[in-house]
Amino acid sequence: MIRKAVSGLFFAVVFLLIQIDQPPVSAQEPSLRAVYNAISGVMAPIWVAQEAHLFSKHGVNVDLKYLAATTAVQAMVAGAEDIGLVGNQGVDAKLEGADLIYIASSLPTFVFQIYARPEIKSLADLKAKIAAVTQPAASTDYAMRIVLKQNGFEPGKDVKILYAQDMNAVFTSVNMGGAAAGIMSAPTSLKAQAAGLKSILNVTKLKIPFLFTAVLTSPKVVQEKREAVTRFLRGYIEATALVRKDKEITLQAMGRYLKTSDRQVLESVYNEYKDVFPKVPLMTAAEVEAVLNASKNPKAKQMKPEDFFDNSLVQKLQASGFIDSVNR
């Protein structure tokens, strides 16, 4: 009897230890591996969602990390990452055969200004001169080429394009005279103004349709982790509303990811981006079509913009009243 009692007590203790060792219910929440592909104010909503615990609020654990644009897309193709906030690179990858899909728009237009040397008064003065952008097929490249074409120039012929690699190098190229003008955004634009460069065109105000950034994933992730993806979108959409409503929370989040406490820098970035994120982040054919029209891949002419996105998850959130509620 004593041996049975001891044996029963032993198993009872083991059972309790197993129960204690179990993770809390919150740790059982669905999780996603997420990426963002730029150290820029365009990423403010995903930073705010993480820092203000909005993903956790909506019941999804998000492991968020930075990966450069092409690397981020490649990681999603390989299944190493589940979801991400990236630019037009997802379109390029799908044209090459990758099974990817955009599920929400983040910024369907360019947010840039063109700064030039003092002797350049307007775009017309750029004829036979050099304009600096970051990298080939980057959003800066597309924006510059589209604007030049709209003003009657043939990019590469009438105006040469200089690939400076990053935004700071674009500024340096213009400031040192290696280029007559360059495409910039905050906080680099602060340096341009301090150096005496002048804005000759606010590209943002043109509202040119273009897939600047959007939420990208794969049909497989949507199918296998649909609830987690939906919760991610809830957190992200609420964050875009919070960016507009709460400046201080947004500045705090941006400061961490931009690695600066300079109030002037943070406010310049905030002011440039606070009103550009759509309240209802439905993908549009126009923003994808702009990428397809600029693509050099022959398959671009064979595919429809609708082949690249699925609005069903956002539409469901819109129909539920959630998007209206967070934007009140």
Would you give an account of this structure?
With 328 residues, the chain is an alpha/beta fold. The chain has helices at 2-21, 44-51, 54-57, 69-78, 89-95, 139-150, 167-175, 188-194, 203-206, 219-224, 226-245, 247-258, 263-273, 285-294, 312-320, 322-327, and strands spanning 31-36, 61-66, 83-86, 101-109, 113-116, 130-133, 160-163, 181-184, 198-202, 209-217. A 5-stranded mixed sheet has the order 2-1-3-10-4, sandwiched between helices. Strands 7-6-8-5-9 form a 5-stranded mixed sheet, sandwiched between helices. Helix 7 (167-175) packs parallel to helix 8 (188-194).
Mean pLDDT: 91
Task: Report Rg.
Answer: 24 Å
Strand content: 15-25%
Q: Which oligomeric state applies?
A: single chain
Element order, helices and strands? HEHHEHEHEEEHEHEHEHEHHHHHHH
Shape: globular
Task: Determine the structural class based on helices, strands and strand pairing.
Answer: alpha/beta
Largest sheet data: 5 strands, mixed
The portion of residues assigned to helices is 40-55%
Strand order of the largest sheet: 2-1-3-10-4
